[in-house]
Records
---
Amino acid sequence: MTDIAETIQEPIQDAPKSRINSRVALFVAITATFMALCNVKDGNIVQAMSQAQAHAIDAWSYFQAKSTKQSIAENTLELLKLQNTPGSADIIKKYEENITRYEKEKADIKAQAEGFTKEYDDINLFDDQFDMTEALLTISIAMFGITALTQKRWLLYFSGCVSLVGIILGLTAFMKISLHSDLISKILG
């Protein structure tokens, strides 16, 4: 009979611990699942950032090529004006038109390149937000593990609060609401 009493007594004494562990398990499952979703979204954001950056680099390279063409045309025009040979008026006019065209094309390309740079910066804001979300959720999962070991109720609540802040930060990033903290980004960056 003493074996049965001990067998029954042990679960009764450990009941409060298992209640905390059940909560810890639930919170870890929720936190880890949300963190996985944020990780997928963050991966997509990083791809979009890479694409925007590549487009910006291409546009700035194209801008530089147009600048080079314009510079060559300006130098050629100057030489033609210095030579002042008969019949060069038509050629001079052609080079002046090319220079004007290059200037207009450069303005369009510059606006496009600046647009890609702005797109990169806008996307990066949410990438940082997802990174902060992942950091907070990882910390909370570690704290939940310590909670399971120590059985401290206050630590369960504190871990839950850290997880909740991470989830709120992630949800706002999903909804494209900026809760970006430059201070935290500088610390983590």
Note: The CA atoms of residues 78 and 92 lie 9 Å apart.
---
Amino acid sequence: MKFLAIALASSVVLSASAQTMPNPQRDSHNVNVVLPAPLAATPDNVAKLRLPSGFHIVKFVEGLESPRVVVISESGNIYVSSRDAGTITMVDGNGKKTKVLELENVHGMAIHAGVLYYVTIRQVYAAPLNPDGTLGMSKLIITDLPDAGQHVDRTLAVGPDNKLYVSVGSTCNTCEERNRINSTMQRYNLDGSGRETFATGLRNTIGFNFKPGSNDLYGWDDGVDWMGDQEQREELNKIEEGKEYGWPYILGNGLKNLYLTPPHGVTLEQWAAKTTLPVLTWNAHASGMQLIFLKGAGLPSGYDGDALASMHGSWGANPPSGYQVVRIHFEGGVAKSITPFVDGFLMPVKGGSGWARFARPFGLAQMADGSILLGDEQNGILYRITFSS
């Protein structure tokens, strides 16, 4: 087996890629490392963005520091986390920014019944929202999430069952975890008690949410790296209680990972038989982040109940993938297709890696009027997307 370890430099591009999962006893494969150069979000660049007919995108807030997760309270206040800065910032309807929390590695957030839940690498907190949008006294409700390793971006949500769901990613690309809590979806009571493992075999499901009007939980699971440009494809999973989703032994739409052997004498075929496959897949290495479901007010017909997911962008593919927002279309409560919704942040250029970007999309939220907020971690911008017929 030949396996290529490559320094992450924007000028490094290796040719060829594996189209199927390689056999370590027989095959070799090359890996492309392509780092698009960061650009400013100039008016000319923003004007080049492509959206469906009738949709418009403008800058709403600038000057944020590495914005990540975005949530909106019932009163309309916008909350933006920054793992790099260790802050949560409140933004009002006029775009005024107020720092409401400082805490190292704060990342995922969820608002439920007037309480903001937020998570760091190993801890979850709950804080009541004051009338002015600031946070009341925070309470530490979960203290024992495992070490994160490679995947430190914890996220959470409150389900229709009034339970708190916490995604705990894997510590690695592909490995056999020592802690059974890693690569799972955990479920708790709202006070942090009663921990139970809801689902397993999820490599890193940062973006997940419940479809309104149902108990259906959907999550975007980021696929493994170092398998070539086209593998492993990203997964949209319907995450159900007690189900196994395959990682690290079964990947994507059923690829058997020949580099690992399941424990306790279980064969790859047996592990595949108990694996729940994704409902849809998307381009490998696109790196899905926040996922939201849309309410139809202010949007054209056919968008109510659909989902959007932000694609942070690849480093290990040529051409690069991601750097966009995708729409997940549902029919009869079933996910039917994934298509680009906001595209054009990525562009070919001369020199360097041959590519440049003017955003790394992350946060998504929908305002009461139906408009959609999109956060760019790279340039510290919140965009606002509106529709007019």
Note: Residues 1-20 have pLDDT under 50 and may be disordered.
---
Amino acid sequence: MPKKLIPMAIAYDFDGTLAPGNMQEYDFIPALKLPSKHFWDKVTGLAKKHEADPILAYMYAMLEEARTAGLPVRKPISRITG
């Protein structure tokens, strides 16, 4: 019997309109055990080097830093269901 698909949405405050400051400062960067300045300097460097949009640069940097640190880029199941 096929599983029933449940509609869902993922909301992320990419431009800082829903929460004060950058959402990465609350959980993501501390999980990397990096100083915030290190992360944002890397983002700035990536954006300049590749003439990229800063938002896309920090999304890329998030994936790269998480991969390097061995951190999954997803919410743990226990936090979703409980």
Note: The mean pLDDT is 83.
